[in-house]
Amino acid sequence: MSTTERAMPSLDADERASLESWLDFYRATLARKCDGLDESRLRQASVAPSPLTLLGLVQHMAEVERNWFRRVLAQEDAPPIFTPDADPEATDGGFDLAEGATYAAALPVWQAEIGRARENCAARALDDTRPFMGGQVTLRWIYTHMIAEYARHCGHADLIRERIDGSTGF
């Protein structure tokens, strides 16, 4: 049974509330996939040859939150979290697990990045732009991209969790 609360996005919200609630829905879904598992299972890879783990997904999403909502949107100088030697422009970090990596340590880091993301978005309009890859990116595009990123990785998490203990669909 999951301990993480997850609200269904409203069926009749405005655009911003819809984007924010779908992003929160998928954030909660990833957390629910990790609920109830011990550290060894959170480090367990899905199936060879893939090294993908639930802990790696949580670390990765902390890195992705940091990249889009701090580096791109807020133009902050925020170094990588879980792969300190990585290129700060890379958005695929976090998947690899350091020897001492734990969910107990990664979860508050991920939650803190989500909190910073919410703060950085609060005063911005959906059409606000920031420089990105020689062009401009809107907050709307970032929200949409993050929903897709989480949805994709929640699918991965569902398969990993099913492989670990047979649990699906929560």
Q: What do these coordinates show?
A:
The protein has one domain: Up-down Bundle (Four Helix Bundle (Hemerythrin (Met), subunit A)), CATH 1.20.120. The protein has five helices and two strands; from the N terminus they run H-H-H-H-E-E-H. It has helices spanning 15-34, 39-42, 54-72, 103-122, 139-165, and strands spanning 129-132, 135-138. Strand 1 (129-132) and strand 2 form a beta hairpin. The longest helix is centred in the C-terminal third of the chain and has 27 residues, at 139-165.
Describe this protein with a few key phrases:
170 residues; mainly alpha; Four Helix Bundle (Hemerythrin (Met), subunit A); two-stranded antiparallel ribbon; 2 strands; 53% helix; 5% strand
Radius of gyration: 16 Å
Strand content: under 5%
Counted beta strands: 2
| Beginning-to-end CA distance, first to last residue | 9 Å
- Please identify which CATH superfamily we are dealing with: dinb family like domain
Numbering strands along the chain, what is their spatial order in the largest sheet? 1-2
Query: Biggest β-sheet: count, sense, barrel?
Result: 2 strands, antiparallel
- Whole-number mean pLDDT: 92
Label the CATH architecture: Up-down Bundle
Structural class: mainly alpha
**pLDDT < 50 runs, ≥5 residues:** none
H/E element sequence? HHHHEEH
The CATH C-level class name: Mainly Alpha
Tally of separate helices: 5
Name the helicity range. 40-55%
